[in-house]
Design a protein that fits this description.
56% helix; single chain; alpha+beta
Length: 510
Amino acid sequence: MNFKFKATPLLRGKNNTQRMMWIFTAALGVLYLFGLFQASKLGSAYLVNAIVLLAAALAGAVGTEIVYALCIKKSIKEFVPSSFGWITALVTVLAVPVDTSWYAVFMADVIAIFFGKLAFGGFGQNIFNPAAIAKAIIPTSFVSVAAVDAIASATPASRLAMVNWVADPASFANYVAEFGGLKGLLLGNYHGALGETCSLLIIILAVALVVLNVIDWIIPVTYVGVCFIAALLVGMTSGLGFAYAVAFVCTGGLLFGAVFMLTEPVTSPITRPGKVVMAALAAFITCLIRFKGNMPEGVVFSILIVNMLTPAINKLFLGNQKKDYSRNMIISLVVVVVCALGTFGIGKSIEASEYLTVEQEEEIRRQEEEANAPFQYVVELEEALANVFEGETLTPYEYTDEKGLVTKVYTCDSGYVFETASEGFEESTIKLVVGIDKEGKVANIICTHSTETEGIGSNVFTSDYFAEQYYGKADGDKIDAYASATYTSKGVRKAVKRALAVYTEVFAGE
């Protein structure tokens, strides 16, 4: 058998992996600089933390690759520059709030680089986007140390997620206004993830990356397009209008994930129809999580899910690409339409909720705290002192009670007044004002503070019967406890007896 070989015409372009990765790094660097600018508005401490986050991320990602290179006995100078671990570090930092703990970022990148990339054989063989793994790890595995404080907690995504991403028209207007309108969402005039806030800057960088042949435009356009169309349909049929669709795609990490995570060539399909299908499925999953899930955002998990589906998508479109082009494009377009309509159906099934502003939520929270607060029986101290011996002028008397039950002592023409404190049920505090006449007998008892159980221990102070048992007596022992309020009754008795003891010790015989 004779074989005839014919040289294939090949074109050599200027584009290569190193060039693409450095341009990609430059785009991420621009976003990081914007993040530093936003952090500086919060104060120098946040600016420093943003810098520390990048250092920790680089140490975790690049450091892991250096250790791995040493373990497999490869040249660090050759392995690390060709593994591009710093990109994972940059993307991770840009995808988290400025108040994130450096430890959470460091550990997330260590785990993501090793288990998300190196365990599969290194760059070019990984199934998952390592940065997406790191982003998913931080809020799920390091929640206790993830945030330094809550300065960036009230992000547009977290706020809109409270109403399952669908609000009534009036509430949606309040939501948009809270973050500076659509202009505020486009320009990133709010605090959130370092690189996800400025939608306009992300769009500009996306165009630049497409023009420079660094990313394939079909992926972000399909992904954002399906989300936008579905949100537009929801908005038009719910009275929210075009603004809802714009807010939907500009909120959270949707644009950032579309441009800087979903487009990774290693974890995306190799054919153009396959990329369309992957992006459409990612959009559907993102919206599904947003509308129906418990997480405030669905971008990262949708990316990880479609990463797993990439081998199956590649297999679906294997064959003669030129011959099967029409078939493949029909399949991909059908997937896009189904995903868009399916997402619209899910969004439309959500009942529009009332969106509450931060001020409204704080007022509701305050009212709930007041409603759920322990019962307190309180009488103003000045009022109580004035009513012990009505019309009498009280003169403070210097006295220190060694037992600490009597806190202050007063004298007047009719007798003596003692401010006392004792313990009630479950070590709660009872404060009383006790009046003792010149003969050493109890003349009046007024409670100034108590947190005893309402309807049980509180009855000791609201019932005239219990206090009146003490009146005219110089001994508090023979007093009946109030039914079902034994501990409270004992606390009152202890305070009154101590007042009588101090009277006997200091004033008896005057």
